[in-house]
Every structure is written in C-alpha cells, then in structure tokens.
Write a structure and sequence with these properties.
With 239 residues, the protein is an alpha/beta fold. The protein is 33% helix and 14% strand. The chain contains 7 helices and 8 strands, in the order H-H-E-H-E-H-E-H-E-H-E-E-E-H-E. The protein has an 8-stranded mixed sheet, sandwiched between helices. Strand 2, helix 4 and strand 3 form a beta-alpha-beta unit. 41% of the residues are buried.
C-alpha cells in the first residue's frame, strides 16, 4: 500500500484571509438573520473599532458618503469625540436613510463640526488635520452612484500628503479584483470591517487592520477565516 495518502475529506478547509463579495454578503446576512445582530449594531461595532484604529492623530477629518460606509464613518467620528480627539466631518451628499439621519443628529449634538465644503487647496487640509478617514464609498458602490460632490472629494483626497485611512475598501476600488477607477484612492492604512475583502490582497499601504472581533467563532470557521488574535480587550488587530 502506498504511504502517500490523499487528503482527508473530513478535514477543515484551508483557512484564508480574504472574502469574495458574495461571501462578505453571506457573512453579513448570517450575522443579521441567524445571530440577530441589528444593522445599527453592526455599524456601531465597526465604527467604534475604526475609531480605535485611527487614534494616532489628534485632529481627524472624516469624509462620509451616503451608503453604509458613510454611516460607519459617522460612528467613527462620534467615538473619536468620546475619546477626546478632535474630529471634523465632511458629508456632502446626505442620505435620507433613518440610520444616517440619527447618526448625523448624534454628531451634531456632540458639537462635532461639519464642513460645508471641502477645500480644493489641498495644503489647507494637510495643515489643518493629522489624518483623513475615507468613508465615502464601500463594497459595490461606484463613484458615479453617489453624486458629483463625493466624486470631487475623492479627487481631492488623492492629492493629500497626510495619512489617509480607508474603511473596509478604498473608495473607487473593485471589491473583487482591487482594480480601481481613475478616482480610486491609495490609502496609507486600511481598516477591514468584519474580515478582509478579496481586493485587500492588492493593498500595499503601511498598515492593515481588521476590525472583526465581534464575528462569532462559528461564523469564522464556517467562512474559513484566518484572522489574527486580539490582545486583551482590543477590538482591532494588525494583519
């Protein structure tokens, strides 16, 4: 009998880092439907962890779009204020979604400044802030879908010399291939929400964090995720 045995079909699948678009949607659906997480709860968890990941600079500009990543950005800004940092929000295309409206009200009542316009003179942004958070687009959202103000904001963000932090997926990137449009950003830091998406394999910035401690162990195993260990009570980990 040959000693070279084939793979045991009962063995767990090889763990991997990155989720396809379909897998990411299925993971979120499982959290919402099977584990009974609420949409606002997931946004809150992701926003809090994003704030923890960017607490290296005192003054932060958070640029939000009208989709779910924008909601995460609003929560991120609120938590930065709670942490006694100095966030400012630019939210040019406001969503009529109730969750976005509630989060906007919370930020306003906490006296977080909202910019009425984003300076086209990039040096003004470089001098005023320590870093910028990109919460403009997100998985499956194209620049043209969110309107001209967001598209113009992305063009400005591409020219920054201060650190840029993208939430989940750099705005303008294809979630599957990582190929970007002409408006695609080149962030210094990527914060993957729940788990890294497939396009993160092309990320070449300085730091990549995952904010997925809230993902239950059974779900991690089901989707064969290989996520880093979290230290103590940390809610983000470096990849």
């Amino acid at each position: 009998m040959s000693s070279a045995a084939g793979p045991d079909p009962s063995e767990a699948p090889e763990e991997r880092h990155f989720l396809s678009t379909a897998e990411a949607a299925a993971l979120e659906r499982e959290l919402l439907e099977d584990y009974r997480f609420g949409r606002q709860q997931l946004v809150e968890l992701c926003g809090h962890a994003s704030a923890v990941a960017v607490t290296k600079q005192r003054t932060v500009l958070v640029v939000c779009g009208p989709e779910q990543n924008g909601a995460v950005g609003l929560v991120c800004a609120r938590h930065l204020r709670v942490f006694e940092y100095e966030p400012t929000i630019f939210y040019p295309t406001r969503s009529l979604d109730l969750l976005h409206r509630d989060l906007t009200t919370q930020c306003e009542k906490m006296d977080i400044p909202f910019l009425s316009y984003l300076p086209t003179e990039v040096q003004l942004i470089n001098e005023a802030y320590g870093l910028v958070v990109d919460a403009v687009l997100g998985p499956g959202v194209e620049p043209g879908e969110v309107g001209g103000p967001c598209t113009r904001a992305l063009a400005t963000l591409k020219l920054l010399s201060i650190p840029l932090v993208s939430l989940d997926i750099p705005s303008g990137w294809d979630a599957e291939t990582g190929s970007d449009s002409e408006d695609g950003l080149r962030p210094d830091v990527l914060v993957s929400l729940a788990a890294p998406k497939r396009c993160a394999g092309r990320f070449s910035g300085r730091h990549h964090f995952v904010a997925g401690r809230f993902v239950p162990d059974d779900v991690r195993r089901k989707f064969a995720l290989r996520l880093p260990g979290y230290t103590g009570t940390d809610c983000v980990a470096a990849l």
